[in-house]
Design a protein that fits this description.
Butyryl-CoA Dehydrogenase, subunit A, domain 2; three-stranded mixed β-sheet; 53% helix
């Protein structure tokens, strides 16, 4: 278990959330549809996110971050995702990298990287997934072998968020290819782009547009030994799993935001659209859908809050984060489909946001560990915590 974090005051966090809400309404919501359809990276929003401190949202104040609790961070992500989910990925992947350094790095690594992460001077994400290894991280093939006072890294990562526009990544490698079980031979490095480290092609996606997902290619890339997180080999798998707790809370919060957006648009449209002489909101078939949609939103929100509270208390929360991620992502998918049906033909039109919700939602059932693996994690933890 990790120690509970020092956090900003409740009053400060309320002010921060208010500022984010105002920014969303002023800057994010008006451009979401345009940038999504053009699949255009929102450079100006990234600059604004730097100014707002979002790249340091969960980084401790002693390192220049906002020091937000996971609970407040989840609410922040929900607020943004209700308008447009994509921007949350730009800082979430970055903050998972930062959490890895803050929780497991040496003090020298914290002092070197965290202040630059907090300002967004260094931005990036988490390098885990490979062409032949996704949920099963122990099957990665990227290697880091000793070479004098450093390491030489070879391999390829894929589906890496911020892969094009990011410059720094927490990279999971194999430092002992003969280790049994394999996770004992895995190590995490903080790496910056340079000779031997290039981004490959940008990957085209159904949804989650405007944010870059790409391959990262390492060919004899040299990294100094002081970039090994924690300074000890063989702990990278634990570092990766620890970071995914925060990542799954983020994905769950996105699910809440998207489910809320689908509900909000549906409630409004159902009162405006008329059939058979009355608003469709007065038809029982529509009321049944709205009732289910609202219940999913509230249940998902409560699960996210429960997981975030355990994370803030420094308690193990892989089961709770898994529950939140599983339910909230499925709620987003179901609500997006119900919203499309309520909107009818207009729900299928690119002139309405509903079609974007429908395209964005499935990602959350896959990202940060598929929902199938979440069910397995939940079940295993349930058995471990309740021995016969």
């Amino acid at each position: 278990m990790t120690a509970a974090r020092n956090q900003t005051s409740a009053e400060d966090e309320t002010q921060i959330l208010g500022a984010i809400q105002a920014w969303v309404e002023r800057e994010v919501r008006p451009i979401a549809r345009q940038y999504d359809h053009a699949d255009e990276y929102p450079h100006h929003l990234v600059t604004q996110m730097q100014e707002l401190g979002l790249f340091g949202a969960t980084i401790g104040a002693q390192y220049g971050g906002l020091g937000l609790s996971a609970s407040t961070y989840a609410r922040l992500v929900t607020i943004i995702s209700e308008a447009w989910m994509a921007p949350t990925g730009i800082f979430n992947s970055h903050l998972i990298m930062a959490a890895c350094v803050e929780r497991f790095g040496t003090e020298e690594q914290k002092q070197r990287f965290l202040p630059r992460f907090a300002t967004g001077e260094l931005r990036g994400g988490l390098g885990l997934t490979e062409p032949n290894a996704g949920t099963d991280l122990q099957r990665i093939r990227t290697t880091a072998r000793r070479d004098g006072g450093g390491y030489l890294i070879d391999g390829t990562k894929t589906w890496i968020t911020n892969g094009i526009h990011g410059t720094c990544f927490a990279l999971l490698t194999r430092t002992d290819t003969a280790a049994d079980p394999p996770h004992k031979g895995m190590s995490m490095f903080v790496v910056e782009k340079g000779p031997g480290f290039t981004e490959g092609k940008k990957l085209e996606k159904l949804g989650y547009k405007a944010i870059d997902s790409a391959e990262l290619v390492f060919d004899g890339f040299r990294v100094d030994a002081d970039r090994l997180v924690g300074g000890v080999e063989g702990r990278g798998f634990q570092h990766a799993v620890g970071g995914l707790e925060l990542g799954r809370i983020n994905v769950a919060a996105r699910g809440v935001g998207l489910a809320n957006a689908a509900l909000r648009d549906s409630v409004r449209y159902a009162q405006e659209r008329k059939t058979f002489g009355k608003p469709i909101a007065e038809h029982q078939a529509i009321q049944l859908k709205l009732g289910d949609m609202a219940t999913r939103c509230e249940a998902a929100r409560l699960l996210v809050e429960a997981a975030a509270k355990k994370y803030d208390a420094g308690e193990r929360c892989d089961m709770e984060a898994g529950m939140a991620k599983l339910f909230a992502s499925e709620a987003a998918v179901d609500n997006s489909m119900d919203a499309m049906r309520i909107h009818g033909g207009y729900g299928y039109s690119t002139e309405f946001d509903v079609e974007r919700y429908f395209r964005d939602a499935p990602l959350m059932c896959i990202g940060e560990g598929t929902n199938e693996i979440q069910r397995i994690i939940i079940a295993r933890q349930l058995i471990e915590r309740n021995p016969a």
